[in-house]
């Protein structure tokens, strides 16, 4: 990484995004097995696992601009993932009153906030 964010912040987002990806993979498996839902769950899988992949790529960014670009993509993927979670809830594939669904939505919002903060602080030169 190019020294744009401190090590604690960097490790936090790496861990958070990986843990979130694991939960998304398990949710996608559940949606396929229990609901035979393949289209929306595949979109969720792609965006939800892409967050961590881009965060990891950013860790070895070749420049500050490369780091910001990868973190920006991760932020966009987090927003997309939240969209798919909300859509799956509103269409009855997920029960938005269930603690694990609430937790996933909360976790996606936390990722969005942290990634947005990292991008903005990196762009400002912090």
Q: What proportion strand? A: under 5%
Q: How would you spell out the order of helices and strands?
A: HHHH
Number of helices: 4
- Poorly predicted segments: none
Shape: elongated
Mean pLDDT: 93
- The whole-angstrom Rg is 15 Å
What portion of residues is helical? over 70%
Report the structural category. Answer: mainly alpha
- How far is it from the N-terminal to the C-terminal residue, by CA? 14 Å
Count the E strands: 0
Biggest sheet record: none
In a few lines, what is going on in this structure?
The chain is mainly alpha-helical. It has 4 helices and no strands.
Description:
Helix content is 81%, strand content 0%. The protein has four helices and no strands. The model has no long low-confidence stretch (mean pLDDT 93). By secondary structure, it is mainly α.
Key terms:
23S_rRNA_IVS_sf, elongated, mainly alpha, 4 helices, 126 residues, single chain
Topology:
Blueprint (H helix, E strand, L loop, with lengths): L6 H29 L3 H21 L4 H27 L8 H25 L3
Helix pairs in contact: 1-2, 1-4, 2-3, 3-4
């Amino acid at each position: 990484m190019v020294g744009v964010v401190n090590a604690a912040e960097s490790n936090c987002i790496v861990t958070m995004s990986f843990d979130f990806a694991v939960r998304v993979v398990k949710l996608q498996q559940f949606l396929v097995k229990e609901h035979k839902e393949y289209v929306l769950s595949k979109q969720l899988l792609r965006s939800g696992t892409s967050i961590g992949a881009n965060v990891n790529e950013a860790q070895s960014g070749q420049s500050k601009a490369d780091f910001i670009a990868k973190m920006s993509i991760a932020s966009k993927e987090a927003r997309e993932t939240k969209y798919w979670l909300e859509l799956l809830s509103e269409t009855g594939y997920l029960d938005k009153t269930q603690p694990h669904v609430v937790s996933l939505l909360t976790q996606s919002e936390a990722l969005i906030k942290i990634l947005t903060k990292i991008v903005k602080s990196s762009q400002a030169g912090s």
